[in-house]
Amino acid sequence: MQMTNVALSPKDALEEFFGFTKFKGDQEKIVQSVLDRKDTFVIMPTGGGKSLCYQLPALMCEGTAIVVSPLIALMKNQVDLLRGFGGETGVAHFLNSSLTRNEAAQVKNDIRAGVTKLLYVAPESLTKKENVEFLSDIKISFFAIDEAHCISEWGHDFRPEYRRLRTIFNEIKRVPMIALTATATEKVQEDILKNLDIPGANVFKASFNRPNLFYEVRPKKDVAREIIRYVKQHAGRSGIIYCLSRKKVEEIAETLVVNGIKALPYHAGMDAAQRASHQDRFLMEDVDVIVATIAFGMGIDKPDVRFVIHHDIPKSLESYYQETGRGGRDGGEGKCVTFYSYKDIEKLEKFLQGKPVAEQEIGKQLLADTVSYAETSMCRRKYLLHYFGEQLPGDNCGACDNCTNPKEYFEAKNDLALVLNAVKESKERHRARFICDLLTGTETSEIKNYKGDKLKAYGSGGERDGHHWMAVIRQANVGGFLHKDIESYGNLSLTEEGKKFLKKPVSITFAKEREYVTDDSADDDIAVNGKGGGAADERLMAMLRDLRHTVAKKNKLAPYVIFQDPSLEEMTVRYPITLDELTLITGVGAGKAQKFGKPFVELIAQYVEENEVERVDEAVVRTVMRKSSNKVHIIQNIDKRLALESIAKSKGLSMDALIEEMETIVMSGTRLDINYYLEDKLDEDAQEEVMDYFRDAESDNLEEALKEFDGSYSEEELRLMRLKFMSEVAN
Q1: φ, ψ for residue 652 (rounded to 5)?
Q2: Closest Cα partner for 111 from 125, 98, 92, 130?
């Protein structure tokens, strides 16, 4: 890559440096604006070619362009790409905390020698005195601020250190500036221009419409199973799955792997080297799927991501747009599937509590827009573009679930009036659930305590169920008729618009909403615990119970010792026909499968053949038992015969929490020998008495055991004895 100067036209430079013969959209005008030394502001969606807008002028201008970027991973990716176009390695560098002292010295030498045209820095690096002094002495062509939305408190990824950039730049020297972002509402745009003190900047705003992306929102039910089916339907294609928590990222990644999908996790809790390794493996297509946290942006530039799945809804539509925008950057297919439950919104609302009032207010408004998008029945693309201040002509984009599968509407004039009246009559002191119970005439303790059954509104909407009224309340909330106060635990009150409507109701249509489940615990149970939700094949379940009874009798054991009900229920969903497959059933370890499994898999194999059961791979979702995070530590220290109190203390656990982790270990089929500990707690006769009880008991229910012994043993002693029993007899 040879250095040149501005005498070369942008088009010629584009071909010389990058091998492209033409610009996309406004790229040429933007490049010219920077070459003309004008302050420039670029709002361009992901995949629109933002990076080239500062990279090309940097290569054409004298001096080094300083590019501020928030992510080390993003910097590395950009630098590698620039070096990949040929020429000297030193043409692009980054300066951040990941470099050794020698590496940082080499970067500075290349800059002084005039080799480096682009220097990527983190905002934190700019605050260091030595860096400010160094940059003050070199020739700087211009400053570029990537991910400029980080400046604004109204942006989806606000970073306080970005607010100080203008001050730091002034300390270094006053040169032209280009700010770039992929998402910015009008409020955020104003904030960026004001904070950077570039009111007269040339502003270039590309369309936010990504016609190749398909937007879809699904109810949050059986999410792990749904995600695995979806990924298997798109086998061999690259995809990203976003989750709200690091723990969920790890769980989903592990569940994908045990189901034969090449996947890796990616979150801020991992060390930098591991994150970089996982990112590289995704870019090199050693793995198909990356599972990442919403909170931690992924600095990746992979053009052929074919699907983006949100396991949890993001906290703002800007985050959603940014994350879905990673799909189909090459202009090819990009499917965006979001699993939505209002319960996720409630979790995000809880995170806002305790934050400064101003931050809470902003957070609440951003969440309200997210709910509105998830629950809207109008064209999702039209709604999304409207949010960013752009109008999409027509009412049907043909590429979102609402347009391809329209919802029904109903006249909501009377229903809205009933809701508003119920809120008013109950003195605007209650949450949505209370209003639903009030309208349906449901007798709850809260209704009784607040004398709701004495109000005129009580039972006034009894012909419809609570789900209907919750939908009306949400749409009234989003429509600006109601205000939900998070600080008073979500109490509803009438807005001016709501009071106006109540005085003079007018015709209004609401959507008949799809049923978005509000309790997504079923997902966790299926994906992780395997707790039963009932047998999928009742006839097989009856046969398995009979077999369990026979095996239990033969071994002189209680049936639950052989396999517990949730394990049998899972067998009726998965149809395991080998011992290896049986070990994938929750609660069935390798030892238990060897000990009791043969007749069960033989029975299931025969049943599958006789009834021509089709075991569709993608319907058989293998589960991951929730692991004790301290499993190895606990097993090793029990083997060393350490006191359980010492083991608990070393991991900062209560005794109760330690026993819970031990129960998880034993339930997954691993034996724990705690006889050395029990010898000091209970004498031989007492232990034998409790062992006899568990041998004969119908279940391992602790409450029943406590009742049976009537205070002779503590709950802790019985739990430890149950652990001994399950280790010695069941495993």
Answers
A1: 65, 30
A2: 92
Looking at residue 723, what DSSP letter applies? H
107/114 Cα distance (integer angstroms):
11
The answer to whether 345 and 317 have CB atoms below 8 angstroms apart is no
User: In terms of Cα–Cα distance, which of 390, 410, 392 is closest to 512?
Assistant: 410
Residues 486 and 483: their CA atoms lie apart, in Å, by 10
Q: Which residues contact 492 (CB under 8 A, 6 or more apart)?
A: 423, 428, 430, 431, 432, 435, 473, 477, 482, 483, 484, 485
Side chain identity at residue 297, one-letter code? G
| Structure token digits, residue 492 | 């509803």
Buried b (16+ CB within 10 A) or exposed e, 533-571: eebebeebbebbeebbeebbeeeebbbbbbbbbbbbbbb
pLDDT at 239 over 90: yes
Mean predicted confidence (pLDDT) in 530-559: 77
Tokens for 112?
A: 């002084």
Left if phi > 0, otherwise alpha if psi is -120 to 50, otherwise beta: which for 624? beta
Strands 482-485 and 491-494: antiparallel
Q: What is the pTM of this model?
A: 0.58
- List CB contacts of 660: < 8 A, sequence separation 6 or more: none
Task: Tokens 């239990």: give the residue.
Answer: 552
Alpha helical stretches, state H, 426-494: 432-440, 445-449, 466-478
Distance between first and last Cα of the chain:
65
| CB neighbourhood size of 481 (10 A) | 25
Q: Please give the distance of CA 178 from its chain centroid, rounded to a whole number.
A: 32
What letter represents residue 428's amino acid?
E
Distance from the Cα of residue 420 to its chain's centroid: 34
Beta bridge partners of 40: 178, 202
Class of residue 504 by CB neighbours under 10 A (exposed 0-12, middle 13-18, buried 19+): exposed
Tokens read off for 146: 């990537």
Which tokens belong to 307? 């699907």
C-alpha 453: how far from chain center: 41
Q: Determine contact, residues 471/510, Cβ cutoff 8 Å.
A: yes
**Strand-strand pairing, 118-121 and 238-243:** unpaired
Question: How far apart, in whole angstroms, are the C-alpha atoms of residue 30 and residue 384?
Answer: 25
Tokens of 303: 């053009």
- Are 217 and 338 contacting, i.e. CB atoms less than 8 angstroms apart? yes
| Residues pairing with 240 in the sheet | 290, 308
Tokens of 53: 């807008």
Measured from the Cβ of residue 521, the count of other Cβ atoms closer than 10 Å reads 11
* Cα 224 from chain centroid (whole Å): 13
Cβ 169 vs Cβ 150: under 8 Å: no
For 513-530, give the DSSP string: -----S-THHHHIIIII-
What tokens were used for 481?
């008729």
Q: Report the distance separating Cα 557 and Cα 691, nearest Å.
A: 11
Lowest mean pLDDT among 154-158, 632-636, 687-691: 154-158
For residue 211, the 8-state DSSP code is T
Measured distance CA(345)–CA(336) in Å, rounded? 19
Distance of CA 405 to the CA centre of its chain: 26
Q: What is the number of alpha carbons within 13 Å of residue 553 lying toward its C-beta?
A: 6
Give the distance, in angstroms, between the CA of residue 652 and the centroid of all CA atoms in the same chain. 28
pLDDT tens for residues 638-691?
A: 988 999 999 998 888 889 889 988 888 887 677 899 999 998 889 888 999 998
| Residue 474: both structure tokens together | 């949400």
Q: What pLDDT is attached to residue 2?
A: 44
- Residue 171 phi, psi (nearest 5): -65, -35
CB 460 within 8 A of CB 437: no
Helix ranges (H only) for 128-222 are 129-136, 165-172, 186-195
Q: How confident is the model at residue 478 (pLDDT cuts 50, 70, 90)?
A: low
